[in-house]
Design brief:
Helix content is 44%, strand content 21%. It is an alpha/beta fold. Strands 1, 2, 3, 4, 5, 6, 7, 8, 9 and 10 form a ten-stranded mixed sheet that branches. The relative contact order is 0.10.
């Protein structure tokens, strides 16, 4: 019986929108070896589990499915999936990203088979904005030919903020023998996982960069914006990981790891400063975009319905209101939790369900846009579009 050469690592949690594309991108691979797909679903509450079961029934010999009977958290789920990976190599892919090249696995495995001095290899990844459906960046920002040791890895962190995406990584399965040895590093944080794997790979050998785009990372800009406390929490978790890695490597790179910690602290400080001063910055950026593309918004309103409203009256909403008012277009209503914006021309509601008259709603909030769009569509007769969608067309 042929041995499994590659274990494709996958964790899922409420990925019903994306999991089919992720799985199909694995199943389309053209390879001359046997592989398995090891999936750990952390008690999804949407239809992810049902979809996974269907794929398991269709590909029983390829898919190893682990369904939790309760949520055990990202770190425990990750470790257990590693424990179930039996291949000589592990290829990484999370349930909301996907591969784009049918030869990806064969290319990376061929390289590792022919170059024993490398522990793993990675490639270029495109970044996809889930909010506007556009590609807007790449990992790494520039081609990285190789990373030969932890010291060089630290330079990558400081220079590009860890520019290798997890969906591009294939590595020799050192965890099959050394999982317990690596456990302290892997369990250092409940929220951050990629950075541990990055440095553990460099502990065992070199990483080679392949200058070819073969995966997509879904950036969910609709996620809730982090607060200052959340920023501090994630940085503190990051510090735990760095401290554990420093101990794991016997403090050989102590000075370099201290530099990484200082670098992350400086990012936090700069982020907080930006948040303090971001009102003027947002006004400048959004105001310029809206002024440049206001014709698109006006055309959309006139094309669909003369009755329209604005959902959200923060920085962006106020700018849209002012711009349209200057063009003689006054919204029939504004939806905002704060009713202090009431004036003689418009009505302000704090509940979108109260607005149900086939109007056009301009969604002018930066976070949770997809969820709010879906709610409006499912609970009212109104048509909804985000400002970002209009000005980026």
């Amino acid at each position: 019986m042929e041995d499994i050469l590659v274990s494709v690592f996958m964790i899922t949690y409420n990925h019903e929108k994306y999991i089919k594309q992720a799985l199909e991108s694995i199943l389309m691979q053209k390879v001359n070896f046997k592989y398995e797909i090891v999936i750990g679903d952390d008690y999804s509450t949407d239809k992810t589990r049902d979809i996974l079961k269907l794929y398991k029934e269709k590909y029983p010999d390829k898919i190893k499915l682990i369904l939790r009977d309760k949520n055990i958290g990202v770190t425990n789920n990750v470790i257990d999936v590693y424990r179930n990976c039996t291949g000589k190599y592990i290829a990484m892919l999370e349930g909301d990203d996907y591969w784009t090249d049918e030869n990806k696995l064969q290319i990376q495995v061929n390289f590792l088979e022919d170059n024993l001095e490398y522990n793993g290899c990675f490639h270029n990844t495109k970044i996809y904005n889930c909010t506007n459906g556009k590609f807007f960046g790449v990992y790494p920002p520039k081609y990285v030919e190789s990373i030969n040791n932890i010291g060089e890895g630290i330079e990558e962190i400081i220079g590009h903020n860890c520019s290798i995406h997890i969906s591009s990584l294939v590595f020799r399965n050192f965890l099959i023998k050394d999982l317990e040895k690596c456990m302290e590093v892997l369990k250092a944080s409940e929220v951050v996982g990629d950075i541990q794997l990055f440095f553990l790979n460099l502990y065992y050998g070199k990483l080679k960069g392949i200058n070819r785009y073969m995966s997509v990372y879904r950036y969910k800009s609709c996620s809730t914006a982090a607060t200052t406390k959340e920023d501090e929490f994630f940085v503190n978790e990051y510090m735990k990981i760095i401290d554990n890695l420093n101990i794991f490597t016997n403090k050989v790179y102590n000075e370099d790891f201290l530099r990484v910690k200082e670098f992350r602290k400086s990012l936090l400080i700069n982020t907080q400063k930006a948040k303090v001063n971001n009102y003027d910055l947002i006004n400048l950026i959004i105001g310029d975009l809206l002024e440049k593309d206001k014709s698109k918004i006006i055309k959309y309103i006139n094309k669909n319905n003369n009755s329209f409203g604005i959902y959200g009256f923060g920085t962006c909403g106020k700018l849209v209101y002012k711009l349209l008012k200057n063009e003689g277009l006054v919204p029939n209503f504004i939806v905002d939790k704060n009713e202090k914006y009431q004036d003689e021309f418009i009505k302000v509601e704090n509940n979108i369900v109260k607005i149900n008259d086939n109007s056009v709603i301009l969604l002018s909030i930066p976070t949770n846009t997809e969820e709010i769009k879906n709610f409006i569509v499912n609970n009212t007769k109104n048509k909804v579009v985000t400002i970002e969608e209009l000005i980026s067309e």
